[in-house]
Design a protein that fits this description.
The protein is α/β, with parallel strands linked by helices. It contains 14 helices and 13 strands. It has three domains: 3-177, P-loop containing nucleotide triphosphate hydrolases (Rossmann fold, 3-Layer(aba) Sandwich); 179-252, Helicase, Ruva Protein, domain 3, CATH 1.10.8; 255-321, Arc Repressor Mutant, subunit A (Orthogonal Bundle), CATH 1.10.10.
């Protein structure tokens, strides 16, 4: 496997299959759709595909569609001409043009407004785009890799995402499995990431006991690789050069039971004899509510019987993005 793909660590069967497919896709100019939960490494995979392609020496441009104000999305993607709208004091190149000859990575493509989806589809079909305020089309040679944590097929069935764009993007879907489905990779990832961070911070890497590693393999890792990396950095800084035992782990890693272990009787939770970790339960309920509502915080708050402000406070408390 090439150096670019070697940065994506893991040996589990599903993960390895995705990487092998990505290497094949990288050698083509096909549009790729990267699927997976937040924190699974979709951006890193997009980088690897670009680095292994014939476009490797050309630009790799990233746009987070969820972070763009709706009124500026078209200008950011396709550019604009001076005077096209209030505040357009000079010509501006769009990200599609900036990635000429290279790759444009559209992260969180599911958040792209419907009006812009039609124009993106036209570009994918014809290679032509039209800057805001310009009459003629421009031909641009840019490969598109898109990514999402949402179910685009379901969104396309409800009209929240264009069906024609979905099928145009879904030529080669590549799904990265969540970390909880890669338990055999946990020890490998912890050791390698810890050593990388130790080199970066010039600290002695801690050692994880067998009992600790067993607990870590059982953790749900809702934040996936991102959560794992943050955890490794925290342990490195606080316990550099020490042996990490279960008692050294943050409280939420020592939970006696998880949300999935709880019994429900007559519509009520039945407290297990071993007890529960209430904070861990609260975190998992918030994450499930956000997942069920595709990240819509107002709807998630209603599911949980909270005000939106209370939900936002608790998301901040638990570092849930």
């Amino acid at each position: 496997m090439t150096n670019a793909f070697q940065q994506l660590l893991g040996t589990s069967a599903e993960f390895a299959n995705t990487l092998r497919a990505a290497e094949i896709v990288a050698r083509t100019d096909a549009t790729a759709l990267l699927l997976g939960e937040s924190g699974t490494g979709k951006e890193l995979l997009a980088h690897a595909i670009h680095a292994h392609s014939l476009r490797a020496n050309k630009p790799f441009i990233i746009i987070n569609c969820a972070a763009l104000p709706e009124q500026l999305v078209e200008s950011e993607l396709f550019g604009h001409r001076k005077g096209a709208f209030t505040g357009a004091i000079q010509h501006q190149q769009g990200k599609i043009q900036a990635a000429q000859g290279g790759t444009l990575f559209l992260d969180e493509i599911g958040e792209l407004p419907l009006s812009i989806q039609a124009k993106l589809l036209r570009f994918l079909e014809s290679g032509e785009c039209q800057p805001v305020g310009q009459q003629q089309m421009e031909k641009v040679d840019t490969r598109v890799i898109a990514a999402t944590h949402r179910d685009l097929y379901a969104l396309s069935q409800t009209g929240e995402f264009r069906q024609d764009l979905y099928y145009r993007l879904n030529i080669v879907p590549l799904e990265l499995p969540p970390l909880r489905k890669r338990s055999e990779d946990i020890c490998l990832l912890i050791n390698l990431i810890t050593q990388q961070l130790a080199d970066k911070h010039q600290l002695s890497a801690p050692i994880y006991s067998k009992a600790t590693l067993k607990l870590l393999k059982q953790h749900s890792w809702q934040g996936n690789i991102r959560e794992l990396r943050n955890f490794c950095e925290r342990m490195l800084i606080l316990l550099s050069g020490q042996t990490i035992e279960p008692s050294n782990l943050p409280h939420d890693f020592q939970a006696k039971t998880t949300f999935s272990n709880l019994k429900i009787s007559l519509g009520q939770f039945e407290l297990p004899e071993a007890g529960i970790d209430l904070q861990d339960l609260e975190q998992q309920m918030i994450q499930q509510a956000l997942s069920k509502t595709y990240g819509n915080r107002s709807q998630a708050a209603r599911l949980l019987g909270l005000t939106r402000d209370t939900l936002l406070y608790r998301m901040k408390k638990y570092a849930i993005s």
